[in-house]
Amino acid sequence: MNMSNQNDPTSESKAPDLLDRMRNMTSSTKEGASPPKNDDLLASIPKAPLQTDEEPTSKSTPSAPRFKKKEIASGGRSLWENSLRALWTLASVISMLVNIVVVALLIALYQNMTVVEIPERMQGIDINVANDLLKGLYDNFELMDNAHIKKDVPVDDSITVDFDLELNQETNVVLSDDVTIAGAYVSIDTALFDINAPATVVLPSGTSLPIILNLTVPVNETVPVKLNVSVDIPLDETELHQPFVGLQDVVQPLYCLVSPNATSLGGEAICP
Fold it and tell me: What is the residue extent of each domain of the chain?
């Protein structure tokens, strides 16, 4: 039988075809394709491998070269990540230092803080005490606004007087000595005789003569002044009036809160 198979020409021609098909099948099986059928004439053509979700093995050849990102040798992190880490570390250190300083200041303030003790006489303050306090403030501000500054101011000084005094008036003068008037013309008319001739007339001392003064008198003197000047200044007519009224307006809301029927010194209602 072996002799007959070796001499058969059909068996010799089919042997190479079977070997080729076996090779194609093995190659396609390695590439992930389905095995060819016996009756498929195109089974010998290699097919493209199927795409799967599995990672490619080291034997598969990539379709295109892949470029790896540039990495830094230390830890495999980029320069940007290292910068962010350094910034975060610096901010954390600064925050810790600030917190330490604040805590130290609070401790120092707490140690130096003094406790304010309320006196025993102030522990029993009630609404009547507050009313009296506010009433006293309001009334005193009102009294200050209505007050007068009265004072006798002594003046002891000297004043220089320099001016021209104009005189033009009638007055009487009295002769201190006898005055002789020579060459006077005397006219005497009596019942016994008449005299109308020149004569010498003597005016005795003490004689009053009416005259008219019309002259300019220069005055340049230093006059001493020594006297007391009475001063009376009402404060409500000065610039202090507005501050006193403002103080009353500040106290008024609290005063009306504790005493709604409060009145002023003149009996007028304070609260609206």
Answer: 2-44, 127-258
